[in-house]
Amino acid sequence: MNGAAESSRGGCHCGRVAFEVAGRPARVVECNCSICAKKAYLHWIVPKEDFQLLTPAENLAIYTFSTGVARHYFCPVCGVAPFYIPRSDPDKIDVNVRCLEGIDLDQLAIDRFDGRTWESAIAGWRATPERD
Question: Global pTM?
Fold first, then answer.
């Protein structure tokens, strides 16, 4: 991790998967695509160097579909999906904020992304100035 003073810990329901992320989210993204909507994912995309898996990688299962770029990691015991490699930013980690400890979701700014029309929506998303 990059040595940020504040960090966030998270993981799955049963504790088989645990991780730490440098920083705390202020903004998250809610996507309405088929998988994000079903998982109730709240996205916080971070650089890979800001993410540290605290449990063995063998404790994870992986699900991919469509283009195969996104790699959805989940616990094979409890089924919780705490993070994944996003199709939009395959060089980063997308943390499911609902899997972080001590986060008050009501305090977060939420940007909405129309993932049902991913191909056209991502072009507009990337053209939008960086969100703070």
Answer: 0.81
Residue 113: enclosing H or E segment and its boundaries? strand 109-113
- Identify the domain containing residue 70 by its residue range: 7-127
Burial class (CB in 10 A: 0-12, 13-18, 19+), 40: exposed
The CATH number of residue 64's host domain is: 2.170.150.70
Q: How far apart are CA 121 and CA 4, in angstroms?
A: 32
Asked whether residue 5 carries a pLDDT value surpassing 80, the answer given is no
pLDDT digits over 49-93, tens only?
999 999 999 999 999 888 888 899 999 999 999 999 988 889 999
Helix (H, G, I), strand (E, B) or coil at 29: strand
Distances (CA, A) of 72 to 53, 98, 102: 14, 15, 23
